[in-house]
Amino acid sequence: MDNTASGFDIDLAVDITDVVCPVTFVRTKVALEDLEDGQVASIRMNDGEPVQNVPRSVKDEGHKILKLIDNGDGTYSLIVRKAG
Amino acid sequence: MATVDYKALKNGGFMRQKQKGCFSLRLKVVGGNLTAAQLATIASVAEKFGAGRVHLTSRQGVEIPFIKLEDIDAVKSELLDGGVFTGVCGPRVRTVTACQGSDICPSGCIATYPLAVEISERYFGRELPHKFKFGVTGCQNNCLKAEENDLGIKGGYLIKQEKSLCTLCGVCVKACRRGAIKISDGSLELTEASCNYCGRCVKSCPSEAWQGEPGYIVSFGGTFGNQIAKGKELAPITADKAALFRLADAAVDFFAGHANPGERFRAAIDRVGWDDFADTVAKAYENG
Lengths: 84, 288
Known about the structure:
Largest interface: A-B, 17 and 14 residues
Radius of gyration of chain A: 11 Å
Shape of chain A: globular
Order of helices and strands of chain B: HEEHEEHEHEEHEEHEEEEHHH
Strand content of chain B: 15-25%
Number of helices of chain B: 9
Largest sheet of chain A: 4 strands, mixed
Strand content of chain A: 25-35%
Oligomer: heterodimer
CATH superfamily of the largest domain in chain B: Sulfite Reductase Hemoprotein, domain 1
Strand order of the largest sheet of chain B: 5-6-7-10-13
Shape of chain B: globular
Number of domains of chain B: 2
CATH topology of the largest domain in chain B: Sulfite Reductase Hemoprotein, domain 1
CATH class of the largest domain in chain B: Alpha Beta
Helix content of chain A: 25-40%
Order of helices and strands of chain A: HEHEHEE
CATH architecture of the largest domain in chain B: 2-Layer Sandwich
Number of strands of chain A: 4
Radius of gyration of chain B: 22 Å
């Protein structure tokens, strides 16, 4: 993961572009469980259904979404600070 | 032997079967909800008086087939003791259907079940020229298929922006399926004409910069039987439940006042004219 491009200090980079719903969310949830409170993850996901729905699921889990970055290659990176 | 009043039986939810002397007993279910205790009662009655099984209807109802004519009173009494009521058939307001809604479903914009109960208490069983169906769906995903009902209610969010809270994170731009939200010059822009009140911006926003008030989108004249036609939205979304019930009252009264016996709501509106009906709807919407 390219830390400098995002402008955030990334503690963990996760790529969910190779899976589909609902595994997209499952892998995201499992990855966030490995982090300490306050640490930041970058989750790379495909355009379409994942980017429409994964951010909301992450929010519903109580984490803080900081940014959604358009990578310009049909993927997006969701920057999330772990909470709870 | 006394003559059997089939019409009275049908009014009480007893559907005559092909098998002589057998009835499929329709039960009252509101919004697709039954308690475990009610299910246990239904199971017991089906074992004791039926064929040990039930049929789940296309509109969230339950029917117990193979009930014998001579058992009707005993069946009714055992059901009542277990808190289960018989349904209705024929020319009247039928089962009110609902999805799980915002009490349970993350996508829901309105609390569908309490609303279905309220509608059922107000209209269920009311005598009309023909059947009349209400359905309540919680959001634009429309799992409950609002527009196939004579009167359909769909939940939405009336949205507003709190720009000071926006972090320009970009989540809502992608969450919106209508392309109604853009970020330009460091500011969020909404094309209101493109908004369908789905509320996905509100539900996905991490900073409460999008806020939503639950509202009702009402459609009229849907039918999905011999004739298939989509109900039409004739009034703007409203957050006012009193306005919703004014619309429902107006629709039911229009049906009662204008339809010929045996004529569905849709056919009556088609015959009398959609302009006339739209006027009725507009007056009901405005006269608070």
